[in-house]
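Shapes recur. Our protein:

. . .
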Amino acid sequence: MDRARPSVLTWFILGAALLGVSSGGALLQAFSDVPPLLRASWRLQATTVLLLPLAVIDWRREGAPWTTREEARGDAMLLVASGVFLALHFGAWTASLDRTTLTHSLLFVTAHPLVVLVGSTVLLAFGREIIPPGRRGWAGGLLGLTGAALTLLDVGEASGGQEVTLLGDVLAFLGAVFVVGYLAAGRVLRARWPVFLYAAVVTGLASLLLAVASGAAETGAMAVHGVVGWTGPSWLVGFLTLAFFAGLVGHTGLNHCLKTMTPLTISLTLTMEPVVGSIIGLVFFKTGIPGPATLIGGVVMLCGLLLVVSNPTQDAAVEHDPLQA
C-alpha cells in the first residue's frame, strides 16, 4: 500500500510516542507499594477507562466487526487469547520491575524480535514452510543473545534501590514471549476490528484477569488496596498519568504514525525504548546508572535487535503492534 510522506508533525508525534511508551516502566516501578499483579490490573483498568469513549465512537461509526455467528465465535476466541496473553505479558513484566533494575527489565521485555527469531528457527527445524531469517536475522539473533548474556554479569549489582536478579530478568523476558502471542492474535483481529474498540475490549479483559490473579496469588492485596484502588485520591493522578502517557500518547501516537510510516520505521524507533526509559527513570525517579556489564551488553543487545527488525525477510514478523496497552 502506498503511503504519503510523513510530515514534520508526524515525526514529532513519533518522538512523543517514544517518550510516552518509554515512561511506562519507570512509572510502574515507582508504584511498587502496590503488589505487581494488582498494579498491572490498575494500569490496564485506567487505560480501559480512557479508551472506552473512543471505542464507543468506533462502534457507532463502524458497527459490529463480525458479519456471521461463526465469525463472531472465532473473534471471541481470539479476543480471549489476546486478553490472556496481554495479562500474562503485563503480569510478568510488572513483577520483573520489582525484582531487577529498570534497564534490565526494559532490555529483556523489548526483546520480542528475538523470540520471533527463535520461534522461526524452531518451525524451520520441524519442516514448516516459512520465510527463513536470513543472514542479517541470524547475525542479529546471535548478537542479541550475546548482549543478553553480557548483561547477566551484573547479577547482584544494585541500581537505584533495585538489584539485578536472574529471576527478574527471566520474568521480563517472559513478558516478551507473551507479547508475541498477543501480537499474533491481534494481527488477525485488527484486519476487521477498529483500533479503539479492539484495544478497549482486550485491555479490559486483561485487567479483569489480572485482578482475579491478584486475588488468588497476592494475599491481602485486595483487602489493603481494593480492586479499583487506583481511583482513590492517593493513586488516581499517578495511574491516569501512566495510562495517558504510556497508553494514549504512546501507543495511540504510534498507531497514528503507521498511516504514513512503515512498521519497520516504528520497530526501529522502539528499539530505543530501553535507552529512553532508563534515562527517564534516572532523571525523574533516580533509578541509578546501570552497571558496566549492563551498559556494554545492552548496547550489543540493541545492535542485535536493530539487525533483526531491519532484516528484509523478517519485517512482517517483528513489526510492533502500536496498540500494546
Summary: The chain has one domain: 9-318. Strands lie at 158-159, 162-163.
